[in-house]
Design brief:
Blueprint: E1 3-11, E2 14-20, E3 25-30, H1 33-40, E4 45-48, H2 50-65, H3 81-90, E5 99-100, H4 101-107, H5 114-123, E6 135-136, H6 149-165
Parallel strand pairs: 1-4, 5-6
Antiparallel strand pairs: 1-2, 2-3
Helix pairs in contact: 3-5, 4-5
Length: 177
């Protein structure tokens, strides 16, 4: 039986749960708690282990509160081939910016599969770490979010503010940018 270790954390967006498999971070979720993990990993042995996850919980809380920071976490993406491709594409969207479902589908070479991109976002088990909150509708409006539209809006506002506060990179004198 597969063992999943988990612990609870707190952030500016509220309490969250994080879970590690032997391969890496497998779940970060708001609101659902242990029931969320049981649904995601029905055949796993779930073990609360605050000590083993203390560093991870700290990195996640910092990442949520300061979206421009890099948590440098090893991930265990568990999904179909398309879902994993979508999740990796989402991780390439810069902090403070958004992309549409159609743009992600086009980047993956499947331009007619925007709906499938949306389904992959809904199946994401790694809140914030795999930033499905950065995906918006074609008209730029915010659509659903597994952990609540209000939370998605707060994440986007926080990331936009962080991006505006970052200093511009100026090349050394005499070098073209």
């Amino acid at each position: 039986m597969n063992t999943i270790r988990y612990a609870f954390g707190d952030s500016s967006l509220g309490p969250f749960i994080a879970a590690l498999s032997e391969r890496g971070l497998a779940c970060v979720a708001f609101d659902g708690g242990l029931a969320e993990l049981e649904g995601c990993f029905p055949d796993a042995d779930l073990v609360e282990d605050r000590e083993a996850l203390s560093e991870t919980i700290g990195k996640l809380a910092a990442m949520i509160d300061r979206p421009e920071s890099d948590a440098d976490l090893t991930l265990d993406l568990q999904g179909s081939d398309l879902e994993c491709r979508v999740w990796n594409a989402l991780r390439e969207i810069p902090v403070g910016t958004t992309a549409t479902y159609g743009e992600i589908a086009a980047r993956l070479g499947v331009p007619r599969q925007a709906r499938e991109v949306g389904e992959a976002c809904a199946a994401n088990k790694l809140a914030v770490v795999v930033p499905c909150h950065r995906v918006v509708k074609k008209d730029g409006s915010i659509s659903g979010y597994r952990w609540g539209v209000r939370r998605k809006r707060k994440l986007l506002e926080s990331e936009h503010s962080a991006r505006l506060l970052q200093p511009a990179v100026v090349p050394p004198h005499g070098m073209a940018s």
